[in-house]
Amino acid sequence: DAGVTQSPTHLIKTRGQQVTLRCSPKSGHDTVSWYQQALGQGPQFIFQYYEEEERQRGNFPDRFSGHQFPNYSSELNVNALLLGDSALYLCASSQQETQYFGPGTRLLVL
Amino acid sequence: AQSVTQLGSHVSVSEGALVLLRCNYSSSVPPYLFWYVQYPNQGLQLLLKYTSAATLVKGINGFEAEFKKSETSFHLTKPSAHMSDAAEYFCAVTFAGGTSYGKLTFGQGTILTVHP
Q1: Which residues of B touch A38 (CB under 8 A)?
Q2: Strand ranges (DSSP E) for chain B?
Q3: pLDDT tens-digit readout, A5-30
């Protein structure tokens, strides 16, 4: 049984560009959450998707948006990238209260 | 608002010694509590969880944690440290319902170093 997968593993962008990160949940999981982990910090909740709708959102600007597809996979989009958006982006899937994390996508904004 | 405090950003132990990583939470409703481990350049791996069943929970790799409501604590322990336990550990909290449902709030993390 494959766990949570994310793509790409690494990404380099320049300020002002847009980026799309992808996540496939564990088999049987219908909920996907996204987190941003800056260097030396704990993960910060961005938002959560369930039944193709955003169910919860953290304290992130509208530049951060997402989508969930009918097969429960998800995308995180970030527009107008800032240097401060450089971080490890983690996707987690769940069916109930326990979230299982993918390996993350490391984004570097230059 | 929910919050998690991990006491000690760095903990150093000798191989074979007791590991104790501290976590306190604040909550006005019963929490669900988790410990995750993160190895360098990797995602988070679930160690164990408390979801209102037994207060002493056992996880993978010999770790366990005890939920103490009176102390609002969920400290992580392991009787004997192994070199492979060196990593960063995160405590996290969420709730069964309300406005914070589904949102994990993490502590700042504790880096565990194990000396030979």
Answers
A1: none
A2: 3-7, 10-14, 19-26, 31-38, 44-50, 56-58, 64-68, 73-78, 87-95, 105-106, 110-115
A3: 999 999 999 999 999 999 999 999 99
